[in-house]
Amino acid sequence: MYRAPRGTADILPDEQPFWRYVESTAAELCEQFGYRRIDTPSFESSSLFLRSVGEATDVVEKETYTFDDRSGDSMTLRPEGTAAVCRAYLEHGMHVQPQPVRLYSVRAPMFRYDRPQAGRYRQHHQASVEAIGDADAAVDAEIIELAWSIFSKLGLNDLTLLVNSIGDQVCRPGYLDVLRHYYQPHQDHLCADCKRRFQSNPLRLLDCNKESCQPYTIEAPRTVDHLCAECKEHWDQLTGYLDSLSLPYSVDHRLVRGFDYYTRTVFEVQPPVEGSQSAIGGGGRYDGLIQELGGRATPAVGFASGMERLILNLKRQGVGPPSADPGPLAMVAFVGDAARNAAVKLAASLRGKGLPIMLAPPGKSLKAQMRHAGALNARHTVILGEEELTQDVATVRDMATGKQRQVPMTGVAEALRPS
Ligand code: HAM
Fold it and tell me: Is 0.90 surpassed by the pTM of this model?
């Protein structure tokens, strides 16, 4: 028997109310904050992610689904959305619009070949926002406020907001020297990944969660102590805004995030359980990315949240979508061949009036049809038999109370509408 590929999941009808709830809550808040929806393709040229996410990152080194298409071009299923949105910003000349251009996506599939476990999948879906074209720390604060509003409105109220600044191309090289200098004597004691990171991506030494590396990461020099004047001012402004918005953030000096494109602000939202793999959302500023992709220097900041993890945490907290799937309003049941034809027509005409209607399965007794309607949560059954046909009426049964009444064919829609 075929099964869904490892690390992927079917989103079955019973799960859809959760997805609709998360999707509509995120979309409504994004629109309220002035963000407009964008959808980009599920795959892009491989080089887009190499240049943006970075060659020495875990995602590009180990996790991309990359293939040559039939014309020999290297394509990659997108592992994240920011690079693709920046590509679209450039391709469609969005720099001529009022800046920042505020964009959001929901239920966008992402692909990472990772070891699957609870909350970590090979295909996941993100809700994300990007504000492109403004360097002001007020926009960073807006993005964080928007992320926090989405979580709060969904009903998630035990999350932790972590922020940090990792500097820019002016101050980061100096900081990395300090960091390497600090780690140099400890190299032999580091885990295999960190030995590699020491050479290729030293910033990521800070967020290693292996037990053996903890003593070194805790004592490591802090990025915020090595910011240049501009980054320091930006950081002070950001924390000032977060204070005045009363957002309950903590500064996490070890927060660096996994992609090369980040500059200055980085932030993450964590649930109370599990380790660093369990971030429910994260983002930050990426002032160099648009230029790296061939555009003019254009500052930007954004955020993304994994919808599977949002739903896992809603369930953990016992928060459900506001209303369960109501099922169809009515099922049209019939007895005999002549009634079958009339039932097909009646169902079509009721649907034409906007009512959610299903036709009973053919070849079953009336009793079995009623059981079917009950199993599907239909609120009414409309019954057509020989007697109904001769009198041009239908019998409408309320499935909750079992009460039945006959109504003229022309009055069925009215009888079904919730009063
Ligand atoms: P990210 O932190 O890699 O950032 O992913 C964002 C969120 O997607 C994570 O916090 C997590 O909730 C979810 N997620 C990531 N990987 C998986 C996985 N394998 N399984 C399930 N959920 C996952 C980004 O993708 C950046 N593009 C965010 C951003 C937008 N930065 C600036 N703008």
Answer: yes
